[in-house]
Amino acid sequence: MPIKIPRELPAFNVLSNENIFVMNDGRAGGQDIRPLKIAILNLMPKKIQTENQLLRYLSNTPLQVEITLIETESYRGKHTPAEHMERFYSYFDDIKNEKFDGFVITGAPVEQLEFNDVIYWEELKEIMEWSKENVFSTLHICWGAQAGLRYHYGVPKYRLESKMFGIFKHVVNKKNAELMRGLDDIFYAPHSRHTEVKRNDIEKVKELDILSESDEAGIFIVANKDYRQVFITGHLEYERNTLAEEYFRDIDKGMKIDVPKNYFPDDDPNKEPIVNWRGSASVVFGNWLNYCVYQSTPYDLKNIHYNNK
């Protein structure tokens, strides 16, 4: 799917060099189609890195996608140049009168805090409430998934004894689910988190289905019945070296941290990690765009209503 982004956005050159189809406003305007409107609430510290990761997978189908990047107003990170944020990002107040086909809420390095202690929790709650009437399908990632499950369905999170950190095997629980189409019986995905949600809490919510899980990493993909809310507890979007960067960052800080599981060959941090989750990431993001968004969203976005598929 050609991604419509400004030529000046760093992801434009990154993705173009990977032979991924990106287009600027001029070329997009010459196509007589309605692009899918996808907004990304980027809560990650390294926002440019996260942009590149997500846009790589949101570009992997035949239709045109128009991206809107959003940041919180109640907290502004310090790891991305201010000029980048001012040029490419909007606040929620800037877009709250718009409607979107799809919405992505990223992870954030705040999972060890209670939800109410997160600086932007009240703002995020407002955004998640807004999304019910103004977004057709919302994809929540990692802490974003825990936050969404807590806000929409009251599902609690629990602190882990040690960080869930590495690449883990997963199984498909519902092979006929549209979001799972094309996934292998066993597939791999990265996790990097200190907290978890539990099966017994989710099973109490009749609106939710557990679509995928891992013997070691636990619950992975959850969705409500009509895919208007999708929750992924890991990081399918991660690149080859993302976990390595996290590991060496914490080592440099003098923190006690285990080597990411099933990641470095022979568990040797001096060896380059082998990517074995790229295929599953392409399938899941592609299925979300196709089945949860494109195949179901109304042509006129004014007709988006909560639980009206």
From TrEMBL:
Q: Name one GO molecular function term.
A: homoserine O-succinyltransferase activity
* BP GO annotations: L-methionine biosynthetic process from homoserine via O-succinyl-L-homoserine and cystathionine
* Subcellular location, record wording: Cytoplasm
Keyword match Amino-acid biosynthesis = yes
One Pfam family it belongs to: HTS
Which transformation does this protein catalyse, written as a reaction?
A: L-homoserine + acetyl-CoA = O-acetyl-L-homoserine + CoA
Residues flagged as site, Important for acyl-CoA specificity? E111
Q: What class of enzyme is it?
A: transferase
Grouped into one coarse class, the protein's main location is cytoplasm
Got a GO cellular component term for this one?
A: cytoplasm
What domain of life? Bacteria
* Important for substrate specificity, annotated site positions: S192
Pathway involvement? Amino-acid biosynthesis; L-methionine biosynthesis via de novo pathway; O-acetyl-L-homoserine from L-homoserine: step 1/1
Q: Where is the active site?
A: C142 (acyl-thioester intermediate), H235 (proton acceptor), E237
Q: Does the keyword Acyltransferase apply?
A: yes
Q: What is its EC number?
A: 2.3.1.31
Query: At which positions is substrate bound?
Result: K163, S192, R249
Q: Which keywords does this Swiss-Prot/TrEMBL entry list?
A: Acyltransferase, Amino-acid biosynthesis, Cytoplasm, Methionine biosynthesis, Transferase
Family membership noted in the UniProt record: Belongs to the MetA family.
**Which purpose does this protein serve, as stated in its record?**
Transfers an acetyl group from acetyl-CoA to L-homoserine, forming acetyl-L-homoserine.
Record's protein name:
Homoserine O-acetyltransferase
